[in-house]
Amino acid sequence: MADLWNIGPIPFVGKSDPRQGLGFRYYQPDRVVAGKSMAEWLRFAVAYWHTFDQRLVDPFGDGTAQRPYDRFTDPVELALAKVDYTFELYTKLGVQFFCFHDRDIAPEGDTLRETNAILDKVVDRIAELQQATGVQLLWNTCNLFNNPRFVAGAATSPYADVFAYSGAQLKHSLEIAQRLGAQNYVFWGGREGYENVWNTDLKREQDHQARFFQMAVDYAHEIGLDAQFLIEPKPKEPTSHQYDFDAATTIAFLKTYGLDGDFKLNLEGNHANLAGHSYQHEIRVARAAGLLGSLDANQGDKLLGWDLDEFPSDLYETTSVMWEVLDEGSIGPHGGLNFDAKPRRTSFTAEDLFRSHIVGMDSYAAGLLVAAKLHEDRYFENLVAERYGSFDSGIGAAVEDGSASLADLETYALDLTQRQLVDATRSDHLESVKATINNYLVDALAEA
Predict the structure, then answer these.
(1) Among 23, 27, 193, 243, which is most exposed with the fewest C-beta within 10 angstroms?
(2) Is there a contact between 362 and 25 (Cβ–Cβ < 8 Å)?
(3) Strand-pair category, 241-242 with 193-194
(4) Would you call 314 helix, strand, or coil by DSSP?
């Protein structure tokens, strides 16, 4: 193995020292938890854009990132060299997958023809290193938001030339997905929304977006691309309102346009918070609709109302996410945990790229261990079964099996006293439930 980063493979070190260093305390890829290895449950992926392209800028300052490939000045040479660095990081972290936007990996030319030629050179190098390392492509997608041509969106742009360009870019991106064996293909509506509803034909824009998605489905069938299509909801930023606001809104869109048989959801923790939801809520909504596809692993700062994309370290949140995954049986048909996250601006060294991923991987591994213990003890399953037990027999069962009418409910309820109705309810003991989760966090990790 090359040593471009001057950092060795990241080992499992266990819990001998509470200080987090260049080693995993909880993540052991081959360790079996709830019938599968950790690697099978977690399916970690590295995000190309944040990990290798993000310069750690913020709205008030230039980037601070120090990267070993910064010595390359020619854009194409840099793009090709960067691929070597990326695959070395994947293998030293021991991750199975990576993700990218097309414009993450290669610079643009003046025309799409020139851009595609540059992009294909880089894809050739990626294909070589995939073959050499076995690292797979979890998903790829188009960058349809950075360039000024996307000022008013791509699929929802009011300008037909921009729509046409976006579709042409999508076509080549789907061909790359097929070539590199992408397990999923993601649509992230970076600017697919509006800033002012007064000058927006909302239905027409959503019709266009649905048509764009259907074109993708049709072309995938044409070329034999067997990847799961995913949509990643986000409520706002940079637009005032984005059409894929949250899981529920996106599901309604898919069902309205008959696309729910072809698409599932790629959900992100930080986006859930921006929509006013917990990450667990978004996952549960997608699961209830049978549309959980994949997960972006990050978190936001609850004190700030913008998309920070921090590496996950909140064990309560990672436990709740992995509880949902365990209850589902997997993240999705072909899904994984993609670290759509970047180090903080003050964590600017190359080593911090490794440290931040270690923290994220360990946090989800710890969450998996706690969630597995909760499932083993059936703590929440028993709580829910008891809470809804009145629907398992009598009038409740008649409601659920469809045999009860309003007249039947009236007959049953007319002579119920207020005391009987109050006595039919039970305390949820919510404070004790929250404390119990804390206890599981402490006890399960102490035993790990």
Answers:
(1) 23
(2) yes
(3) antiparallel
(4) coil
